[in-house]
Structures are given as C-alpha cells and as structure tokens.
Design brief:
single chain, alpha/beta, 7-stranded mixed sheet, 5-stranded mixed sheet, 4 helices, globular, Exosomal polycystin 1 interacting protein
Length: 219
C-alpha cells in the first residue's frame, strides 16, 4: 500500500535530518590557537582555514579568548594548528604541550633565532612560513602510525606503564626557510638533562626519572 504524499515528505525529512546529524557528529574538529593584539584565541574549526587569516578564523570557527595559564602544558586530542609571529608567542603556546599532529604557521617575515621547544608525543609536523624562500611549506613524519603508543584514540600523558616517553625538541630557526625540514631520533635516553645539558630549562619541569626517552631533534 503506497504512503500518502505528505507521509513521504515526512519520512524523507526525518531520514535526511538523521543522516545530517550523524555526519556532523562524525566530523572531527581541529584546534586552532593564535595570538592577536595581545590576546590568545582558542578556536574549534570544522574545516581548514587559510594560514594566518585571522578574520576568516573568527568568522568560520568557534573561538574564545583564553588566559595564558590555561594552555600551559596542555593536551590536545585533535589536530593542533598554531599561528604565531615570534618565538615568545610560540613558546607560550607550544612548549611541553602533548599533541600528535601539529601544524605551525609563522605569520610574519621575522627571522627567528635558535631556541628549542619541547613537545610530548609528536607524530607528525607541518610548517608554513611567510618567509619567501625555497621551503615555504613542509611536513615531517616523526613516528610511524604502527607505533603502539599511537594506537590509542587520544594522546595521554606519560604514565608508569609506558616503556618509553616520546619527546621532540624543535629548533625555531627552521622557520627561516634556509633548508629542508629534518629530524633525527635517539632511543634509550636515560636522562635528557644529563645527555643534553644545553637544554637546561628542562630541569624546571617535573618529569619521570625512571623512564627511557626517545628524543627527536627537529631542525
């Protein structure tokens, strides 16, 4: 028995709404953080935003102004993008953050000095720079997806049950675009502070001392 036309429309509307709701729930928003006019904006974006387009980010993403202490040593489940203009801002937003997939965009033509920033659990890095040189956009795979530490749905802070702690040190001078993005890793590092004394600021942070590290330098 055929349904009346009105009931057909009702069913189509119902299933259409259900499919749309399922699609929206299945979308994974990315996190965008940037500094603008002495404020920090934390945004949740359902689509990629053109690098350093602050107006578009405020228009297309759900953004809020946050205080600096709320993002120190933060942990991100989603992909993280950071727009910055100097190493001070980048250090504030990134240093000792836990994130697996990271994109960093330098939104100025400033030449950056060599400073090292620490990142926990980094798997993939993408960088973009406004410095017009040979390497404006680059990407780097730090650890393969087959590593057991990255099989979890969400990144987690190091615990006693983990054998290795992944820590990457990023040289901020890489944004000057003078060479291609590179990295090298050292396994079974018993103590970061003893093996790399020039990373003295590492001593300021409370980290497990009974673990072995896989240390990656990105330059």
């Amino acid at each position: 028995m055929a349904l009346p036309f009105g009931q057909h429309l009702l069913l189509i509307s119902f299933f259409g709404f259900f499919a749309y709701s399922s699609f929206v729930r299945g979308q994974k928003n990315n996190t965008l953080i940037f500094t603008k006019e002495n404020t920090i904006r934390n945004c949740s974006c359902s689509a990629d935003i053109r690098d350093c387009d602050y107006n578009l980010a405020n228009l297309m993403c759900t953004c809020k102004t946050v205080l600096p202490y709320t993002i120190e040593q933060a942990s991100y489940d989603s992909d993280l993008t950071i727009w910055f203009t100097d190493t001070t801002a980048l250090g504030l937003l990134l240093n000792f953050t836990l994130v697996r997939d990271l994109k960093l965009s330098l939104c100025s033509s400033t030449i950056l000095p060599t400073e090292y920033l620490a990142i926990w659990g980094l798997k993939r890095l993408r960088i973009n720079t406004e410095v017009k040189d040979q390497f404006p956009e680059q990407s780097l795979l730090i650890h393969s997806s087959g590593d057991s530490d990255f099989k979890e749905d969400k990144p987690k802070w190091p615990t006693d049950r983990q054998t290795f702690l992944y820590v990457s040190f990023l040289d901020t001078a890489l944004f000057n675009g003078e060479s291609s993005l590179k990295s090298y890793s050292i396994e079974n590092v018993a103590s970061v502070t003893n093996n790399f004394p020039y990373l003295s600021y590492f001593k300021m942070f409370s980290i497990p001392s009974n673990k072995s590290y896989i240390v990656t330098f990105i330059y």
